[in-house]
Amino acid sequence: MEQILINLVSGALGGVGAGKSSPTFDLGMAGNVISGLVGGGVLGQIVTLLLPSVMAAAQSGNLSVGGVVSQVVAGGAGGAILTAIIGAFKNKAAA
User: Fold this and answer.
1) Alpha carbons 92 and 18: distance in angstroms, whole number
2) Which of 89, 52, 85 is nearest to 67 (CA)?
3) What is this structure's pTM?
4) d(CA 58, CA 45)
5) Alpha-carbon distance 78 to 46, whole Å?
6) How far apart are CA 31 and CA 65, in angstroms?
C-alpha cells in the first residue's frame, strides 16, 4: 500500500512540475495533478513488476531507501511524462 501512495504523490508532483515547466505542457493545476497521478501510478507499478527486488521488499513490508527512491523516481517520471504527452496533444489540437 505504501508503494502505491509513494507513486501517486510523486506522480502528482511530477505532473505539476512538468506542466509548470512549459506552457506547451500545462493542463491547469487540476489537469496536471490528475495526469500526474495516473502516470505515476501506472509507471510505478510497471517498475515494481520489472524489478523483483523492489516488489519483494514491498510485499514483505521492508521498504529500503533504495526501494523508496526507485518508487519516487518512477512515479515522478511517469507523472511528468504523461502530463507532457497529454499537454502536447491538447495544445497541438487547439492550434
Assistant:
1) 17
2) 52
3) 0.81
4) 11
5) 10
6) 30
